[in-house]
Amino acid sequence: MKIFKNTAFIKNMFSSALEVAKFEGAFIRTVSGIRGQIKKPDLRREGCFRATFEDKILISDIVFLRAWYPVKPKKFYNSVCSLLLADKNSWKGMRLMGQLRKDEGVKIPDNPDSRYRLKIPRQLQAELPYANKPKNMDKQRKKSYMQKRAVILEPHERKVYSLMSAINTIKKHKEKAVRTKAAERRKKLQEVAAKQEVVDQKKKRANLKEFYRREALKTRGK
Predict the structure, then answer these.
(1) What is the CB-side half-sphere exposure of residue 184 using CA atoms within 13 A?
(2) Are 8 and 1 a contacting pair, CB within 8 Å?
(3) How far apart are CA 212 and CA 220, in angstroms?
């Protein structure tokens, strides 16, 4: 209906001011992915309301609201009379489709019409929400409103930000020093283990040599 910077008046979504009042504060979104929120109903026109958005929207944008309606499933039961028998173990429930196909040796039907590759036209891709767009799109050339906006901090916020930055820097430095020392300790332990392995191999070869020498002497003595 009307657009004023980040504020807009929307129509044709609700039929009365009461419906708008029920959804006050709900999150809405345009097809192009700009998020917004429902504020107040427009009392001059039935079903119209005022909403705010992250960025300025166009008059051609379609605004939608994700809503859910509770649906109660129909209650159904199938009485099992065979459990009244003396032998309770003879009863078996109905087999599922997968069990039936496995028992009967029937393969899953293959419908050739179901083999297709989804191709979305570029015009339709541009109108899709960001979450549903293909992820192999070109990089964004222009910065969005959220990227271009300047963040101005108060003096107290600047002090807190500087303090937290200093604390994070000290923490990262300490973690780096701990990792470096741990790596040095592992390297020294590996060197000691390698030296010990060489010594053990030499002892093992010497023991085997002595064992075979004794065995040879025993064999000659016999």
Answers:
(1) 6
(2) yes
(3) 12
pTM for the full predicted model: 0.32
128 φ, ψ (degrees, to nearest 5): -75, 155
Distance CA 64, CA 152 (A): 33
Q: What angle do CA 97, 99, 101 make, to 5 degrees?
A: 70
| 27 strand-pairing partners | 37
Asked if residues 52 and 9 have their Cβ atoms less than 8 Å apart, the reply is no
Percent of the chain whose pLDDT exceeds 70: 87
**At 30, is the secondary structure helix, strand, or coil?**
strand
- Statement: residue 167 has pLDDT above 80: yes
Q: What pLDDT does residue 136 have?
A: 65
Residue 12 Rama label (left phi>0; alpha psi -120 to 50; beta): left
Residue 73: strand, helix, or coil: coil
User: For residues 80 and 17, what is the distance between their CA atoms, to the nearest angstrom?
Assistant: 52
Q: Which two tokens stand for residue 69?
A: 């309606």
At 110 the pLDDT is 84
Residue with tokens 């271009």: 148
C-alpha dist (Å) from residue 163 to 82, 169, 179, 220: 75, 10, 24, 85
> How far apart are alpha carbons 101 and 117 in whole angstroms?
28
Q: Check pLDDT > 70 for residue 109.
A: yes
Q: What is the pLDDT of residues 61-77, one digit of tens each?
A: 888 888 887 888 888 77
- Cα–Cα distance for residue pair 221/215, rounded to 1 Å: 10
